[in-house]
Amino acid sequence: MSTRSAFDVAIVGGGLVGLSLALAMRRRGLQVALIEPQLLKPIPRDDTWDNRIYAVSPGSAAFLESLDVWPGLPPERITRVEAMEIYGDDSTARLEFSAYDAGLRELAFIVENRRLQQELWRNVDSSAVRVFCPAACAAVEFGAHHATLTLADGSEIEARLVVGADGADSWIREQAGIGMTPAAYGQFGVVANFSCEKPHYGVAFQWFQRDAVLALLPLAGNRVSMVWSIVTERAERLLTLPASELAAEVSAASNHALGELGLITAPVAFPLRLQRVAQFVKPRVALVGDAAHNVHPLAGQGINLGFRDARALAATLEVREARYDCGDYPLLRRYERARKEDVATLQFTTHALQKLFANERVSIAKARNAGLKLVNRQPQLKNFLVRQAVA
Question: What's residue 100's pLDDT?
Fold first, then answer.
């Protein structure tokens, strides 16, 4: 026998963005349901490092602190990024960013995915959010006054608003008939963690190469997390290398900036693509996180875009006039307008940079490396770029 429950908002997807949105909306007095098909895997009891990490901006950290999530993270597993060094594909092009020069304490925080997700889940479990997990959606109907989600077990969830926080291959986006334009980069992001011979001093490093972008992000102690965005064939080869050979190849590609490296977590890879959606919202539905946008990871801003979605959508619903309910289209359009410029700007910038450094023409190579040098000589421009990234 099926059961029906009524809510203001039903969020489909229990990733970082969906969980943070559920907490933010519940704190604003809304009745919230969260539907997630998979149970969270427990964190290993040993000191293993998660090979999926995020560069969380100070603005996103403040958002998580407002949800009482940030204080629950183990401080010894969080690393402050105090500076960043970016290198072009010649021996002289260099761009440096400094938190101190911008009047900030840090540019970002490096946080492990599983620990952040676990703390978000802990707060959701202790809140009044109604969690359906594990639970899969079987159907959804968008009506004039509410939407109805039918779960695989026959249960029905009625909500004024359904939020798709279910990732790049969003089922909610598809069911709502929201178009998406994908563009594959022909690259994979290869991630792994390493011990390093030299201290990193809280500096994040990035090297633009002809067919790749290599980043080494600081972890606690003499450890770094690698994100190597690289063409598919080279990515597949990296995954097959013995640990010592992979470490040697990364050390060489990073010009031995941190000395010899030692692999501490096995590499994994994920395909890279750009995704643009036709709309962020329709009547009774809104998209957040990867369901609403995908960007190249070279700027490390994907998760921060998602957290800014959650902040904006929760704030939009909080200040709505009495004549609107949570799923009314004119109200949701405010959220869409608040987010489209930010998302489009980052998508354009990362896509243009990826294409610029993938171009092998000599004239283009000279121009892009000259551009890095030029920006490096403009402190006001650099500080402006930093302020945009830390929001």
Answer: 92
Q: Are residues 367 and 241 in the same domain?
A: yes
Given this model, what pLDDT does residue 1 score? 44
Supply the pLDDT for residue 32.
98
Cα 107 to chain centroid distance, Å, stands at 16
Query: Which residues of the chain are under the pLDDT cut of 50?
Result: 1
147 and 253 housed in the same domain: no
pTM of this prediction? Answer: 0.94
CA 104 to chain centroid: 22
Reduced to 3 states, what is the DSSP secondary structure of residue 309? helix
| Domain coverage including residue 199 | 49-113+185-272+358-389
CATH code, domain carrying 135: 3.50.50.60
